Amino acid sequence: MKPIFKQTKLSAYEAIDEAQKIAFAPLIFQAVRTMRELGILEQLEQHKAQGVDAQGIAEALGLSLYGVETLLESGMSCGVVELNDEEKFTLSKVGYYLLHDPMTRINMDYNHDVCYQGMFYLDEAIKSGRPSGLKVFGEQWETLYQALPHLPEQVKNSWYAFDHFYSDTAYPAALKLIFAAKPKTLVDIGTNVGKFTILAAQYDADVHITMVDLPDQLQNAIRNVSEAGFSERVTPLGMDLLDESSHFPPGLDIYWLSQFLSCFGKAEIISILKRIAQIMESNSTVYILETCWDRQQHETSSYSLINTSLYFTAMASGNSKMYHSRELLECIEAAGLELEKATDNLGLCHTLFACKKRP
Ligand SMILES: C[S@@+](CC[C@H](N)C(=O)[O-])C[C@H]1O[C@@H](n2cnc3c(N)ncnc32)[C@H](O)[C@@H]1O
From the CB of 287, is ligand 1 less than 6 Å away? Predict the structure, then answer.
């Protein structure tokens, strides 16, 4: 495996400095998020290069001087807040992106609302192979996907914003590729709220779509498809794909799995793909849209993907992750499928794997 991340030779002093950044990372994360939430970053931006003192921010926001000073000092330590020549506080370029970049905001909200509390149980999750952090939302669920429709509104909103932000960017390019062969039938496996199903129904006026998800989650998709006016061409099919006796509709043109296989461990992925291989025809295509950390254009994308794996470990399933493409290709092979084509760089960070049944 080639190194993706810079491996710089550091002095002992530099190394201990980096180690402290990691040791304090959870606290700094909360300090910066709190500054964003309370309007401190916005105050800094409004005062531009001339800057503002802590008292000015405290008065404008009705916060204590103590609280504002504590947060600004933390912000200075991590490069979000700067001091100008008049010793006034200003917003750094990093702070600007924390305030305005949609991806950064979505990642931060997701890490706070969905992951933060449960991440405390990461060690337990690693030892048990179960999503031990999920207990912060209730003890009754095996996976986050069973819990999803029942989670508090803010947690759900942050989860959906994160999920949609990435897949939304890849859908337009993927639709063009998969509809080039004029498919008549498609099954959207792990349809979630039905976003792709609706886009596909809009893209092609003749295609018939089956959408599959866990029964509770499927209710959202059914409602959205009905509101979009596509119920006549869309058939909902509620099932738990971890149940090995569950089977897909046979002989369809396209089996579509977007950001879906990363929800499962490798043995489960092979089982799901095998069940598809058993019922597909030689002219059917399995399309897998995934975010593989080894196929990214930017180190930052690989960094974000690799660390999203920790959500799968502690919160979602205990055995799934953002895979290296080699791991997915091994599963494809083991299931009796063969790769026809892999197309990289769809949207922000996706690869589309087109697979056929192995003759
Ligand atoms: C990460 S979301 C992907 C949503 C969408 N396909 C996309 O591209 O954004 C995974 C979806 O798979 C569904 N899912 C997870 N485990 C499942 C299972 N065991 N059986 C059926 N669906 C499942 C979840 O409910 C969720 O809607």
Answer: no
CA 210 to chain centre: 24
Does 262 contact ligand 1 (Cβ within 6 A)?
no
Domains 12-100 and 104-357 equal at CATH topology level: no
Rounded to 10 degrees, the C-alpha dihedral 154/189/263/30 comes to -20
Q: What is the DSSP letter of 52?
A: B
Q: Whose CA is nearest to atom 25 of ligand 1?
A: 145
How high is the pLDDT of residue 2? Answer: 76
CA distance linking residue 68 with residue 118, whole number of Å? 28
Q: How far is CA 137 from CA 112, 132, 183, 324, 342, in A?
A: 14, 11, 41, 30, 38
The mean pLDDT value for 173-181 works out to 98
Supply the CATH classification number for the domain 104-357. 3.40.50.150
Cα distance between residue 196 and residue 179, in whole Å: 13
CA distance 26 to 80: 15
pLDDT of residue 6: 87
Q: Say which CATH topology domain 12-100 has.
A: Arc Repressor Mutant, subunit A (1.10.10)
Q: What mean pLDDT do residues 52-68 have? A: 98
Query: How far apart, in whole angstroms, are the C-alpha atoms of residue 313 and residue 88?
Result: 43
Distance 40 CA to ligand 1 centre (A): 37
How many angstroms separate the alpha carbon of residue 34 from the centre of ligand 1?
Answer: 31
Q: Go through 111-148 and write b for each residue having 16 or more CB atoms within 10 A of its CB, e for each that does not.
A: bbbbbbbbbebbeebeeeebbbbbbbbeeebebbbbbb
**Does the structure show a pLDDT above 90 at 356?**
yes
3-class DSSP state for residue 192? coil
37: amino acid identity, one letter: E
Q: Is the CB of 114 under 6 A from ligand 1?
A: no
Distance CA 89, CA 85 (A): 10
Query: Global pTM?
Result: 0.97
